[in-house]
Specification:
It is a multi-pass membrane protein. This protein has eight helices and two strands. By secondary structure, it is mainly alpha-helical. The chain has one domain: Transmembrane di-heme cytochromes, Chain C (Fumarate Reductase Cytochrome B subunit, Up-down Bundle), CATH 1.20.950. It has a two-stranded antiparallel ribbon with strand order 1-2. The radius of gyration is 20 Å and the shape is elongated. The N and C termini lie far apart (about 65 Å).
């Protein structure tokens, strides 16, 4: 049986742009608080951009290509356990798109990001800066939510660190270069792999979804 490998496109352009835009905005969001004392406006703009990206990704999880859809990588407990038992085997990752464990990591990260964005809308920094919805609640409640906002960010930093560690684990132990795949969109996979369910949609659909996400955030900021 021929088991040679071939390059297969697994990530569409919108998903890849989302991924790297998220990395950039998250870094800016962190740096604007941790590295500078007077960069709250930058922090707000980074937050609004992150919220736009988050809304886009949630919508794209329902209307995007096969590997972008939640139904593709939201695996059940049994499938996740079965895959977890293979983690220590030094063989390449032959999954099209996210593996079951990686899929759950995406769900957790998006959930934490959603909580981070929502709490940020109601937070303040004890000075003159506050989220666009902070004036709808009491100062004490805003202070409490601000603390939760900071705590969630610490969880996100931990998740990001685990994600980076996983990327290196797959690169050097399982011989699967996830970074290149997320840059080019292609993975090297066995040609015996069933790709009949793999499909992509028009980039115009992604532009429309992004416009909807941006309009939602703009309306929230302008009319709050």
């Amino acid at each position: 049986m021929n088991t040679t490998n071939q390059k297969i496109k697994v990530w569409d352009l919108p998903t890849r742009l989302f991924h790297w835009s998220l990395v950039l905005c998250f870094a800016v969001s962190w740096g604007s608080v941790e590295l500078f004392d007077d960069a709250m406006q930058i922090h707000f703009y980074a937050g609004y951009t992150l919220l736009t990206l988050l809304i886009f990704r949630v919508l794209w999880g329902f209307v995007g290509g096969s590997t972008a859809r939640f139904s593709h990588f939201w695996s059940g407990v049994h499938a996740t356990k079965a895959y977890a038992r293979t983690l220590l085997k030094p063989r390449p990752n032959d999954n099209i798109g996210h593996n079951p464990v990686g899929g759950w990591a995406v769900i957790i990260m998006l959930t934490l990001l959603a909580a981070q964005m929502i709490t940020g809308l109601f937070s303040n920094n004890d000075l003159l800066d506050s989220g666009p919805l902070a004036h709808y609640i009491s100062g004490d409640l805003s202070d409490t939510i601000s603390g939760i906002h900071g705590t969630i960010f610490n969880f996100l930093i931990t998740i990001v660190g685990l994600h980076i560690a996983a990327v290196f684990f797959y690169r050097f132990y399982k011989h699967s270069n996830l970074i290149i795949a997320m840059i080019t969109g292609y993975k090297t996979l066995p040609n015996t792999l069933n790709t009949s369910g793999l499909y992509f949609v028009s980039n115009f659909r992604a532009i429309l979804v992004l416009a909807i996400a941006a309009a939602c955030v703009a309306a929230l900021v302008i009319y709050s």
